[in-house]
Amino acid sequence: MAKSAELTEHDQEAAHAPLNWRHFYEMTKPKVVMLLLLTALVGMCLATPGLVPADILVAGLMGIGLLASSAAVINHVVDHKIDSIMARTYNRPVAKGKVGVGQALWFALALGVTGFACLMLLVNTLTAWVTLASLVGYAGVYTMFLKRATPQNIVIGGLAGAAPPLLGWTAVTGDIHPHALLLVLIVFTWTPPHFWALAIHRKKEYARADIPMLPVTHGEAFTKTWVLGYTALLMLVGFLPYLTGMSYLIYLVGSTLLNAGFVWYAWQLKFSDKPGWAMKTFRFSIVHLMVLFVVLLIDHYIPITL
Ligand code: HEM
Ligand SMILES: CC(C)=CCC/C(C)=C/CC/C(C)=C/COP(=O)(O)OP(=O)(O)O
User: Fold this and answer.
1) Ligand 1 centre from 131 Cα, in Å?
2) Pocket test for ligand 2, best of 29, 44, 211 (most atoms within 8 A of CB)
3) How far apart are CA 96 and CA 90, in angstroms?
4) How far is the CA of 49 from the centre of ligand 2 (A)?
């Protein structure tokens, strides 16, 4: 009796419902984690001229994926109150009370411990600690503090989401190479236009949940200017892998086209107020990053020079 009095309303509701694996799967943000893993895989492949050892490939991706999933589950727990206010997220398992806070936290712990052990025992200590730091950066620093504190939340918090190419690289070599940091810089510069495009579309919901996202605090016009600014910056950053000799012609052509496409979307968003364009820009950002990293991979194995 005393124990049930200590349980939250959500825990009580969840305690009566049969556990559904789909809810647990959903809490791991599988599509986001898949894209993070693609960037990690590319980091691994670019780290070596040869083939990535199969054991490092499997254990590295498993460890990074499990820790990123754990971070996503913690995000569902910490944010369950604001998630329940927003149309996009009100149906999430913890927000809806389909999974209890305690259950979700045990799940996050299990994922986190397994992922960390996997990296520590089968990959290397550097990768294990930097991946754990990324988890803390996203689930702790971004979700618990920055998200509610400043409209620059995602610029700073974006570092955690940008880390996987470095994690993949360190998994293979055990050290931090400037080329790996270049890949991090690409994802880091990509993140603000990726997220602010969505935040423009969901501005009213963020305002209702009292989250200081840039379109809420500084308005849509200002946010659109910065979306365009970051895509232009991404265009410049995109030349660095070629200029530093990390990548070759296939990358140069592919990345220039993709980045020009992103600038075009951002330009349209800023100057021709087409309905639904913010969401189109957001969706394009996801395809853009996916294709960009596939292009990096193809270019690595087919290094064409002038
Ligand atoms: C702090 C940094 C980031 C923020 C604030 C952010 C924000 C978001 C938000 C709010 C969504 C949900 C859209 C929806 O539910 O309709 C989303 C979707 C997505 N994000 Fe990000 N993102 C960040 C970084 C990243 C990174 C680094 C990646 C991958 C490399 C990524 C990949 C994706 C993907 C694939 C989706 C689509 C998920 C789906 O359709 O279920 N994001 N992002
Ligand atoms: C270990 C490691 C690599 C960690 C990275 C973790 C990770 C899942 C990063 C992705 C960033 C992301 C989806 C942010 C959205 O959070 P949000 O709370 O603003 O969005 P939401 O409202 O959709 O939850």
Assistant:
1) 18
2) 29
3) 7
4) 31
Nearest-CA neighbor of 189 among 221, 133, 139, 228? 228
pTM over 0.90? The answer is: yes
- Contacts for 121 with CB less than 8 Å, ≥ 6 apart: none
**What is the per-residue pLDDT across 137-191, written as a single tens digit (0 to 9) for each?**
999 999 999 999 999 999 999 999 999 999 999 999 999 999 999 999 999 999 9
Sign of torsion, CA 144 148 149 151? Answer: positive
pLDDT tens digits, 213-246: 999 999 999 999 999 999 999 999 999 999 999 9
Q: Which CATH class is domain 11-157?
A: mainly alpha
* C-alpha to C-alpha distance for 79 and 210, rounded to whole angstroms: 12
Q: Which two tokens stand for residue 127?
A: 């990768």
Neighbours of 302 (CB within 10 A): 10
Task: Say how far apart CA 254 and CA 241 lie, in whole Å.
Answer: 12
**Distance (Å) from CA 49 to ligand 1 centroid:** 31
Confidence bin at 61 (pLDDT 50/70/90): very high
* Ranges of each domain in the chain: 11-157, 177-306
CA distances from 68 to 98, 142, 256, 284 (A): 22, 14, 30, 23
Taking a C-beta distance cutoff of 8 angstroms, is the pair 135, 86 a contact? Answer: no
Which residues line the pocket of ligand 1, CB cutoff 6 A?
31-32, 35-36, 39, 88, 142, 154, 157-158, 161-162, 187, 191, 194-195, 198, 286, 289
CA distance 127 to 166: 9
* Confidence (pLDDT) at 17: 67
Tokens of 259: 């980045």
